[in-house]
Predict the 3D structure of the following.
Amino acid sequence: MAWRGNIAKSLKELRILLCQSSPASASTRTFVEKNYKDLKSLNPKFPFLIRECSGIQPQMWARYDMGVERCVNLDGMSESQILKSLQDLVKAGGATKA
């Protein structure tokens, strides 16, 4: 999973929005708990923003160069699907730099 170390090269910012207690955000909360430390250690200066808000649908926002943003709705996704979505967002950012 070499792409994990390239997040800072492909994106400008990553925001994950989730609810602290809703079942819809359960897999997103677990994803953050299991992956944040590793992702942050591989990209120490990169802004990973975790935003908790009661009742919000889980989402992942990627910001690229020139203020371009992409959103992925994480509702109903498993941890592995969330990881794949993040990988796709990182790859999309690398494609825009080519």
